[in-house]
# Entry
Amino acid sequence: MRLLWIFRSIFLIVIAAVLFVNITSQGMVEDEAGNVSEDARKANFNAVIWSGLGMALFVFLLDVFTPKKKLSALAGVFFGLLVGILISLALTFVVDMIMDTYRIPINMVAITAIKSVMGICVCYLVISIVMRTKDDVRFVIPYVEFAKQTKGARPLILDTSAIIDGRIADLCQSKLFDAPVVVPRFVLNELQLVADSADKLKRNRGRRGLDILNQMQSNPAIEVEIDDTMYEEVEQVKGVDQKLVMFARACNGRLSTTDYNLSKVAQVREVDVVNINDLANSLKVIALPGETMEVKIIKAGEEVEQGIGYLDDGTMVVVEGARNKIGRDLLISITSSLQTSAGKMIFGKFEGFVQETGRNNRRRPQRKPAATHTTGNNRNQ
# Structure
């Protein structure tokens, strides 16, 4: 956006320079016959000033107050300049026709100034349109397309839950994702709303997300971009989740989230999803039935005699026969495990209490010692 405002400033300076040079020239005080006349000076001055300022103000306001999109290829500027010059050349004949038809009493110097300002305005407007509507150019002119240039693989688009979760920063730091990280502007706005929430828990989560995003931006190993691009199909839908799905489709990116429902909706819309929970679960040690582990019971479960505990990595452990053992460290035998995108659950049954000296092995599943098989000869001995 800074480049676009620099371009707008150059446009205004060029318009002012062209008008100043023309209104201060000697030809502005001469009529069509070449005679110096005060009436001719006023007519030429008014024609150049009002037509120039009018056209410049019109195209500038039209550009500022229309939806903005980002130019991804510098070739779009040259393409817009070429089209603007061709359109300006065609409009010069229209100006000559109007002058001849209505016999407007201005000389060639004023007409040249009007054509110059008109050409600058047309080129500016065409380049601005290309900047903001590069994705629609192909529908107007076949086989012409300005594709977004990205480094490496397809961009990784973060939602609010992935930013607040924080693990994405470590994953990007580990070079697991060789792709630019993109945060849409509406996601950043939602994160700010969460940080400004009256609820203390939400406010802390929002501030944590902003801190993590700032940490990722300051890390030279991570390429983070705050994308202000306003796609028409994105603006037409409501809700941040729907906007994320449409944004990922528009920029051909992959959506990174920890939201189970959002990941399912994105898959239905044929958008590639990187679910951080799925990735984390695939890296966990598999808990096999029959293994033993130690866990501390935190609260009662939903079913009768069930107790709930958690491992250090957040995995929920449901223990049968542990409802009345809240606050105790138990040795359990794993009966089954359930792994989904929403998280992982381990089911087990109470085997005994952990001794005070044996608490250092929590979190590490232990296999039961294999039963000793004895032969008939050994039993007889």
In short: Residues 75-102 form the longest helix (28 residues). The chain has three domains: 2-140, 156-281, 292-361. Residues 68-73, 146-152, 356-381 have pLDDT under 50 and may be disordered. Residues 249 and 359 are 50 Å apart (CA to CA).
